[in-house]
Inverse folding.
């Protein structure tokens, strides 16, 4: 909580995510909203859909139920964090929710220059956020295609950003 408060005071963009265990999606969404309540309207909200310790992995309706519950209770569209297998399971959410894509083109990479994106996101047309490293480091590296205004729009629930920017523009508009 202290870290989030400090980030908000420093004018940083924040987000909250829920790692799906695969239990009842409505109960998990309610729990997530209870834990994240102080940040609703300030942080983007995301559902983390992975195979590890997820009893519902493969269920093509689970994520929709979770995301619908978040939307019904807050008015905010929850994003989906997942890799290639997870986005295939959730094709019905494509272009309805922002995608935070997990894809690691080089498992040993530890730099900040974006590696080449070599993934097929279909049926999504693009990612909103891309986590491009995950190798047990202290910090997973991510980049976004959202402007600060688009991030805030998504966090407030006033819309789903349609503006996708180039990787070069990311450095100019998001990193400060």
């Amino acid at each position: 909580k202290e870290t989030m408060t400090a980030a908000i005071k420093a004018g940083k963009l924040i987000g909250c995510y829920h790692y799906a265990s695969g239990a009842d999606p409505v109960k998990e969404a309610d729990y997530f909203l209870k834990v994240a309540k102080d940040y609703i309207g300030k942080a983007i909200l995301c559902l983390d859909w992975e195979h590890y310790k997820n009893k519902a992995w493969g269920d093509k309706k689970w994520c929709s139920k979770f995301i619908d519950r978040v939307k019904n209770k807050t008015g905010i569209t929850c994003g989906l964090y997942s890799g290639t297998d997870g986005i295939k399971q959730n094709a019905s959410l494509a272009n309805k929710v922002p995608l935070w894509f997990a894809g690691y083109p080089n498992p040993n990479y530890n730099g900040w220059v974006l590696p080449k994106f070599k993934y097929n996101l279909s049926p999504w047309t693009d990612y909103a956020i891309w986590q491009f490293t995950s190798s047990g480091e202290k910090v997973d590296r991510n980049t976004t295609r959202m402007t600060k205004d688009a991030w805030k729009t998504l966090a407030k629930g006033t819309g789903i950003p349609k503006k996708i920017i180039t990787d070069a523009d990311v450095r100019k508009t998001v990193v400060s």
